[in-house]
Amino acid sequence: MKRTQALSVFRAYADGYDASDIKIAAKIAHTYRVAANAERIGKSLGMSAAAVDLAWFLGLLHDIGRFEQVRRYGTFVDGVSVDHAALGADILFLDGLIDRFPTDGLPDGWRPLLETAIRAHNRLTLPDGLDDRTRTYCQIIRDADKIDIFRVVNELTFDERVGTGRDRFVDADAASPEVMACVYGHRCVPRDARRSVFDGHLSHVCMAFELVYPESRRMAAEQGYLARLFDAAGWPDAAVEQLRAAKRELENAWGLTI
What we know:
Elements: H1 3-14, H2 22-44, H3 49-61, H4 64-73, H5 84-94, H6 110-120, H7 132-155, H8 158-162, H9 177-185, H10 197-206, H11 214-223, H12 225-228, H13 237-254
């Protein structure tokens, strides 16, 4: 596909939002990184050039709803605003934004596959009944997204990320039993279980448990951002013990030192 043209269309869309807002600027950077991550994961799976193009394109479009979410609500917290994945899919496929992008050379069936993967990329679990090809792309974008989220939560403060959604989160000395059950169960944390700042922090750690592909785990480890999430500085003693427990669980699950 014509990637240069696709990037130009994306930039033109993003230019309609206030890049002086740190959340908008961060989302632009995140988009480019996730596209690159998806491309690398696709190549690791031995995909054809056209299939890798589709993985990259999915990365470019996966968070298109975030821009309008920030404009309307001033936050990335879906629970107090809108489901950004559904909003993005609606903007693309109902409002017609997708028609501005070049799609020549993409594999047959790309359109419903792309819409499904965008709508599902932020769900706790994937919907039942997906065909193998669609499930693969859903897993690629979910892995690619999580890998860069580890960077985002290191580079932006909690308040910068949540914006107007800050009031939803309380301060606590430790994560809730429900969140710790996710740590020991090696699974992602449900949105409604994140009630404190530290719950949110540990929920990002838990994303690593569900990285599907070996290349995804290698990328997360080599980039170093995941390791920084285990830094004890500034957390209460009880939280530090929980971070250590989460690190042990993840290293045991992956079979490597983080």
